Amino acid sequence: MSESKDCIVLLSGGLDSATTAAIAASEGYRIHALSFNYGQRNKWELDAAKNVAASLCAVEHKVIQFDLRAFGGSALTSDTPVPKNRSVEKMSAAIPVTYVPARNTIFLSFGLGWAEVIGTSDIFIGVNSIDYSGYPDCRPEFIEAFQHLANLATKSGVEKTSRFKIHTPLIKMTKREIILKGVSLGVDYSLTRSCYDPDDDGTSCGMCDSCLLRQRGFADAGLIDPIKYQIHN
């Protein structure tokens, strides 16, 4: 663990990142939360991230703005329809159109830069390789490769003053396990938002992959999801 006990937490405002931040806090880290306004459909998640950061007493919360709509290539950064009502099997059968090209690589790069500035070697990210939608940048192989890169491509790494660690506490957990862990740590899931395609008021659609995985996780945990969903006829 870093001597400073400071860490960077990539905080989207969703269920997984909120749980990850709570785990970091429970391990004694001071949280420096980092979120991104990258042109995504769900701008409401930034409000959620702000609320989650405040609830966990983050030291600070930065929101970095850039526009991945300039490239498109994803249903989250273009007008491509978001898939709805897919089975779990279909979700994991192929990389979906909601994959944003190189997103976690970009996010972790920002996190790495900030970590080096504040003098910490610990970066937390809420990736998960079990209950997920087939994203290549959520796999252990990617995290291991990025961590290796981090220690090659930075002043701190080259001078060996610190060794960067990418923490992925959720990577082998099911959604049920993630939710139960968060509840045990006092996470207020009513503050979180996970939807890929919310309405203009920020209400979750209840039918995209992210909503379906979230709802199944709460059901498997024997709990009620505290957020509202759109009503569909």
Word description of this protein:
With 233 residues, the protein is of the alpha/beta class. It has a single domain (6-220), classed as HUPs (Rossmann fold), CATH 3.40.50. It is 36% helix and 11% strand. The chain contains 8 helices and 5 strands. Strands 3-2-1-4-5 form a 5-stranded parallel sheet, sandwiched between helices. Helix 1 packs across helix 7 (175-184) and helix 7 crosses helix 8. The model has no long low-confidence stretch (mean pLDDT 93).
Q: Biggest sheet, in brief?
A: 5 strands, parallel
Compressed to H and E, one letter per element, the order equals EHEHEHHEHHEHH
Mean pLDDT: 93
Helical content band:
25-40%
What would you report as the Rg, rounded to the nearest angstrom? Answer: 17 Å
CATH superfamily, by name, is HUPs
Shape: globular
Uncertain spans: none
Terminal CA distance = 51 Å
CATH topology, what is it called?
A: Rossmann fold
For the record, the CATH class is Alpha Beta
Q: Helical stretch count? A: 8
CATH architecture assignment: 3-Layer(aba) Sandwich
Strand content: 5-15%
Strand order of the largest sheet: 3-2-1-4-5
In short:
The protein is built from 8 helices and 5 strands, in the order E-H-E-H-E-H-H-E-H-H-E-H-H.
Protein topology:
Blueprint: E1 6-10, H1 15-26, E2 30-37, H2 44-55, E3 60-65, H3 88-91, H4 103-118, E4 122-124, H5 140-152, H6 155-158, E5 165-167, H7 175-184, H8 209-220
Helix pairs in contact: 1-7, 7-8
